Amino acid sequence: MHVRDLIQFLGELSENNNRAWFVMNKPRYDILRAEFLDVVIRLIADLSKFDPDVAGCNPKKALFRINRDMRFSREKIPYKTTFSAAITASGLKKPSQGGGPAYYFHIDADGKLLIAGGEYMPPPERLRAIRQQVIADPAGFSKMLKNRKLRETFGDLQQEGKLIRPPKGFEADGPHAEYVKLKSFIVWNEVGLKKNSPADLNKQLAATFKDAYPLVTWLRQVT
Question: What is the pTM of this model?
Answer without folding.
Answer: 0.93
